[in-house]
Amino acid sequence: MVNQPSLLIVDDEANVALTLKMVFERDGYAVRTANSCASALKLLENGHQFDAVITDLNMEKENIGLEVARAALQLHPKPAVVLCTGYASVDNSAAALQMKVDYMVTKPVDLDELKRAVRRLMAFRDSDPGK
Fold first, then answer.
1. Element spanning 71, H or E
2. In whole angstroms, how large is the CA radius of gyration of the chain?
3. Burial status of residue 112 (CB atoms within 10 A of its CB: 0-12, 13-18, 19 or more)
4. What's the predicted TM-score (pTM) here?
5. What is the pLDDT of residues 13-26, one digit of tens each?
6. How far apart are the first and last CA of the chain?
7. Quick one: pLDDT band at residue 85, thresholds 50, 70, 90?
8. Burial class (CB within 10 angstroms; exposed 0-12, middle 13-18, buried 19+) of 18
9. Which of 25, 33, 70, 79 is deepest in the core (most CB within 10 A)?
10. Does residue 1 register a pLDDT over 70?
11. Per-residue pLDDT for 76 more than 80?
């Protein structure tokens, strides 16, 4: 049996999280969702392994998605981290780049672009001997 790639999708808008979950599950991913930073941090801190984390930037607080990204980037093996936002600024974009978030996408998200980016990032992660 082939292992399914696993994703964590974090968005405080339940309909957005559910839509992304359905899109990625249709493509063969095992998907968990979280509707807050706190819920996502619990999953990340409790030993769940994810190949990629897709998180909204602004949820219960402005830029709180950076906390999710930071926690995900400290894991080993490190998942690919994608930040989604409708409100990119120079400051939050710089913070994301500084912490080495893998990809930043603006809302409304082009689903095909997001799926291609996740596949590409996971392929690169899997081929990286220093992961």
1. helix 65-73
2. 13
3. exposed
4. 0.92
5. 999 999 999 999 99
6. 24
7. confident
8. middle
9. 79
10. no
11. yes
**CA distances for 17 relative to 27, 96, 97, 105, angstroms:** 16, 21, 24, 15
Instruction: Identify the H or E element spanning 38.
Output: helix 37-45
Q: What is the largest CA-CA distance in the chain?
A: 45
Token code pair at residue 72:
């995900």
The whole-angstrom separation of Cα 52 and Cα 118 is 7
Q: Which domains does the chain have, with CATH numbers?
A: 6-126 (3.40.50.2300)
Task: Give the other-Cβ count within 10 Å of 52's Cβ.
Answer: 25
Let me know the angle formed at the C-alpha of 100 by 95 and 103, rounded to the nearest 5 degrees: 95
pLDDT at 127: 75
Are 66 and 96 in contact by the 8 Å Cβ rule? The answer is: yes
For 90-104, the pLDDT digits (tens) are: 888 888 889 999 999
